[in-house]
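Give me structure tokens for this 83-residue protein.
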Amino acid sequence: MDPDLAWIMTEVGPKTIVNPRTVEGVGTGTHRIVEKGRIKPTVIRPDDMIIAHVPFSTYNRFARKMGNIERSLTVFGHRLNGS
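Here you go.
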């Protein structure tokens, strides 16, 4: 509800990290899994993880992006409220 908060700092749906042998696939944006037959993947919801989309095209771009993420967390981290 904060109009000054950048959309990129808002909470989004859950992301999935999966063993590809245990699922049929993932949904758009990897926000959900498509179960494979009767296999029920274990679901773990960590409370200490931040997912950042970081391009890996060049080392310099990666390093610049990581620096931007660090600065964003320093400036806006208090607004994350654990989400």
